[in-house]
Specification:
CATH architecture: 3-Layer(aba) Sandwich
Largest sheet: 7 strands, mixed
Shape: globular
Distance between the termini: 29 Å
Radius of gyration: 17 Å
CATH class: Alpha Beta
Strand content: 5-15%
Structural class: alpha/beta
CATH topology: Rossmann fold
CATH superfamily: Alpha/Beta hydrolase fold, catalytic domain
Number of domains: 1
Number of strands: 7
Helix content: 40-55%
Order of helices and strands: EEHEHEHEHHHHHEHEHH
Number of helices: 11
């Protein structure tokens, strides 16, 4: 099975892989990729069954997704994962540490659904209702999901328009199948990573509470930052600032 891959090569610049979140595709990076392009050689990948990657493994597991990514990604790169893409990036970095120079996550929670020892997450009842709604009406549930990502956030209206265009243009083939990944708990894998890790959060994020930043810092000792007034997509509302923080982080760790 093959994945949709978009390359934006910038010879001599560090390799950067971008992974989108659940229900989306690599089009979500459109504006931010333009900001990144002068500084990196970009590889944008659509996760299995999402975006323009129509094929997907059955059963849909993190391990199978990581194996597909290993065939599509550069031999060595910095990885940047947003939301569920952050989770998959952690899984990839844990399995292939020699292929990941550094890891950056945006609006990612290593335990998306609440556990007794991890309360800074979506509660079980809310997540169950979301799963049921997706089963009943996928299109309507996706619409509600993108509204939650932008509600109350800086530049939320503009970001919502962009997300609506994406889900209208490309319907995910495995929305229900891929949702199972959000029940995985990758806290042990995150805390066990050997490469530098930067985690970015939005203050107004309704899906990943900003409190998760403190919990992640305590859990794994990662570098964290919370963007004021940002929702679930800080790279849209705070693009220039996110770029500056990424470059500063990499300069202090590794680049090429």
């Amino acid at each position: 099975m093959s994945l949709y891959v978009c390359r934006r090569e910038n010879k001599g610049q560090p390799e950067l892989v971008l992974l989108h979140g659940w229900g989306m595709g690599s089009d979500v990076w459109e504006a931010f990729a333009q900001i990144l392009s002068p500084f990196f050689s970009l590889t944008l990948i659509d996760l299995p069954g999402l975006g323009r990657s129509s094929q997907y493994p059955v059963p849909y597991t993190a391990e199978s997704v990581v194996d597909m990514l290993a065939e599509a990604a550069p031999e060595k790169a910095i990885w940047l994962g947003w939301s569920m893409g952050g989770q998959v990036s952690v899984e990839y970095a844990a399995k292939y540490p020699a292929r990941v120079n550094a890891l950056i996550t945006v609006a990612f929670n290593p335990c998306f659904v609440q556990r007794d020892d991890w309360l800074c997450a979506m509660d079980e009842s809310t997540h169950q209702k979301f799963e049921q709604a997706l089963e009943a009406n996928q299109a309507k549930t996706l619409q509600r999901f993108i509204m939650l990502q932008t509600q109350g956030a800086l530049e939320g209206r503009e970001t919502l328009k962009m997300l609506k265009r994406i889900i209208k243009d490309v319907e995910p083939a495995a929305a229900k199948e891929s949702l199972v990944l959000l029940r995985d708990d990758v806290r042990d894998k995150l805390s066990g990573l050997s490469m530098p890790v930067l985690q970015l959060f939005g203050e107004k994020d309704l899906l990943v509470p900003a409190e998760a930043s403190t919990a992640c810092e305590l859990l794994a000792g990662t570098t964290v930052k919370v963007y004021p007034e940002a929702g679930h997509l800080p790279f849209c509302s705070h693009g220039d600032e996110v770029l500056a923080d990424i470059c500063e982080f990499l300069q202090g760790s590794i680049t090429k």
